[in-house]
Amino acid sequence: MKWTGFYKVNAHDTDLNNIVSLTGILRYMQDAANCQMEEDGPSYDELFSKGLAFVLSRIKVSVYHPIYSHDEIEVSTWACESSGVSFNRCYSIKRNGEIMAEAYSIWALVDTNAHKLIRVSDFEGGYGSDSPVELDMAKRFRLPAGINLTLVGERTVEYQDVDLNRHINNTRYGDILCGYLPEMAGNRVITFEINYISEAPLGETVKVYMAKGEDSTYFFRTVRDGGKTNVEAEIMIETI
């Protein structure tokens, strides 16, 4: 069962190319998911009050066409067939009936008090399900073997990065990682895949490592204080 909302693109969601940034796209998708949770139940707040939280494990996004300031877009989201401790959810963004972007995501439902994962079979939700989008997403995300990652910067997790859980919100990584690409003027993200491994909390410093692959593809790993990996990601860009 799909939930669909209609949005007019905010100017502050666009980047220096006057197109919606990767983080902007992720935020429209996430807002649609939050709206479905609110409408069909249980909502994010209802889960949070019970000590439960959906935590994003992986997401792959394909952006087929640029989206511009003040465009009127149709954002859909829906749960997909899931099993074990993996809750699958898909997204699409359309403009004038044409698909502009799609995404496939995998979530975990965490009992924050008991520090354990909730199985799909033990969760009662009203979100329904529908067929998944057809994106080429492997069962596991791995950086290429032998890739030479180089330290390109480090940053302290600050107020603007975090959400209610007090760690970097999953949508923020689009801006964070794109900020280390050599040149975004005249370029746009066409694919983005990220594997969330451990949360980076408020006040912690993460080191950012990057390597360039082929065909304008870049690979990332962020590492937390103490050496634990935060995320690994792949971004492909193209000239506008």
Structure explained in plain terms:
This protein is mainly beta. Helices cover 13% and strands 40% of the residues. Strands 1, 2, 3, 4, 5, 6, 7, 8, 9, 10 and 11 form an eleven-stranded antiparallel sheet that branches. A hairpin with a 4-residue loop joins strand 5 and strand 6 (116-118). The radius of gyration is 18 Å and the shape is globular. The mean pLDDT is 95.
Give a quick rundown of the structure.
By secondary structure, this protein is mainly β.
Explain the layout of strands and helices.
Blueprint: E1 3-8, H1 22-40, H2 44-49, E2 52-63, E3 72-79, E4 87-95, E5 98-111, E6 116-118, E7 150-156, H3 173-178, E8 187-196, E9 205-212, E10 217-223, E11 229-239
Antiparallel strand pairs: 1-3, 2-5, 2-8, 3-4, 4-5, 5-6, 7-9, 8-11, 9-10, 10-11
Portion of residues in beta strands equals: 35-45%
Count of separate DSSP helical elements: 3
Residues in helix, %: 10-25%
Largest sheet: 11 strands, antiparallel
Low-pLDDT segments, ≥5 res? none
Q: Which word captures the global form?
A: globular
Radius of gyration: 18 Å
For the residues shown, what is the average pLDDT? 95
Structural class: mainly beta
